[in-house]
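Service request form, structural biology core

Requester: graduate student, group of Dr. S.
Request type: structure prediction, single chain
Budget code: on file
Notes: please return the result as structure tokens.

Sequence provided:
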Amino acid sequence: MNEFTPFITQMVLLGVIPFAAYFLGVYIRITVFPSPQSLVMKHQFLVAIPLSVMVIAPLIVTLGQAITDAENLSAYLITIGVIIEHGLFMNEAVCERFNAKLQPA
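Core staff response, request fulfilled:
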């Protein structure tokens, strides 16, 4: 198990925490700042699945470089904050556009 500990830690830092941060941003937006035309939470989370991959994939490089050195903790935390902000704003904007497209003309 000891030889897998760095690998498991790296996978959690690069794979689990960024996606959890994005969905935390979606959850905060839905519960704290709901808009009148917001979709229900279930639909917001379904739309967030492909959006989270689009947002997080380019940032994995930054996160990977940040976890290699303890001095780069601030870079890691700032990147996680950017991911949360994307979950707050980008997901709602895309959901509103999808909802507008689905409305009958």
